[in-house]
Structure of Na+/H+ antiporter:
Amino acid sequence: MHSSDISFVPLLVVIALSFAVPVALSPVRRFGIPVVVGEIAAGMLVGDSGLHLVSQDFVLQVLSVFGFAYLMFLSGLEIDFSGLAPRQGLRASKAGERLRRNPFVIGGAAFVVTALCSLAAGFYLTSVGLVGQPWLMALILSTTSLGVVAPVLKERGLIEVTYGQTLLVAALIADFVTILLVSGYAMLRVGATVDLLLILVLLLAFVAAWRLAERARKNLPAQRLMHALSTATSQIRVRGSMALALVFIALAESLGIENILGAFLAGVIVSMLSGSESSVLREKLDAIGYGFFIPIFFIMVGVKFDLPALLSSNSPWETIGVLVVAAFGVKLVGSLVFRLAFGWRETFAASTLLSARLSLIIAVAAIGVEIGVISPALDAAIILVAIISCLISPIAFSRLAPRRYRAVQQMLVIGDDRDSSALARRLEQMGKNVHTVTELPPGDNGNPPSRARLSECLRAAGIEQTQTVIAMADTDEDNLQICRVAREVHAVRRLLAWVRDPAYNARFRAADVRIVNPAYAKLLLLESMALDTGRIDGGVHEDESHEIRIAKLQNRWIAERELRHLHLPEGTRVLRIERRGAILEAEPSTVLRVNDTLTLVGTREDVDTVTRRLARRW
């Protein structure tokens, strides 16, 4: 193919639309309408059912296929395995309660019930002549859009709490199991029964790649090389993630499996291995996907939308109505499982959000058209159902979710000494919502307070809206009891404790608590200074003219520039940068953003000057 045979004009139109749609939707953003809905509508306007400005040429087809695979890759990357780890240290008497509130148990049971209801709905739709085959329709109705659920939970501050994690896991299970079943179903329809075993080959490759990458992550020379290559020009982690995604996409395609499964597994591997770099890496990968590839996919879905085929079918609007009722009905029944752990309002809110379907339902319908199970008219109806569900679900969830789940997530500092008060003040300077507990209920005979009393005390302090507990009580026994109650009774994910006696370290770690020892803290500080003298300077602790200051970037003239262009006074440095809860390395190439929180060190006068400069609005 010669370069003269390729026209970039259709791509230009699609990219222009991907820029214009978010701008056009910004006035109605408060209603929670996903941008992808606008992208599909824009594609309809310029595509086969509209103005015919964009056709399905070769360039757009390639970018669209990769855009959808990349969307599945980001769906796998969205899973935070550190937060989904099972709780430890539970007593046997609490095992039943733990089982009822376990996100995997609730999510798995909800999917099983939903799948059974979807199968019944599939047979009903087949009996009335709306669909020709019940099995694929059951899979279509079982799907949930992780790409809609995760952003809604993030926006409302629910991603960290047990309720949000349970919703996330339910969406994850629905997506992952559906992808597996659709891949197997497609292979069975084309007569590749024996080739079903090839899915196991892909899963074995997944395990092998994960084990190999895990070893490399623990190898110190390999990590030094990765760090050295993580520059603005090399971006080795981004390149490695993209290469891994393409490896699994190509492997799945070579095995005759849907490439979306390979892309999803690659995202899961990156999520498990990224560790402390996950927030930065995800931001970069999100920018690549949502900035270019993924909008092309959704706009091309609208371009290919076959409105004439839908309107020429028998009773098109009746078909859409029945599909919408079935789509929301099966999720309503399946979400009743949430009542085991949550109230009725949370249960109904969960059913509305899990009813959102978008990328996967469109992909499954496309596969159905390809293998001859779904007609073009039904495919168009399914796309409209996806759009309708994405319009209704976020708005309904916002109205139904209890107000206590809409509160800003807080940190709870427990302790009554000078250090705990200083920590609380510093966290508040960073813009965190911090509550403190300075007095614990008394214990019996010098023992820590009972679990019941301590639970009531923590509940009164607002632990139900807390995502991080920092235990700095007088004794290690008290801190251990605080952490156990916070984890086992109130399901707080992030626990930190000040441990005075290193003999307690193993007990805290068994309770999945991150610890700091006075002796260890000193060693870690000295080690950091020895390994990286440019980042931490011991002189800060000796020279009273120097101080550490927290400052928030509000100056839009500085934003979107690299840190090296901040032109700091000599002797003033940025120790770290916090962005939306993630800690970024203060590298010269780090691009600053509005609302970044910078930790500065320098003389009082210089730090005051920089702080005022950062705080200026213009």
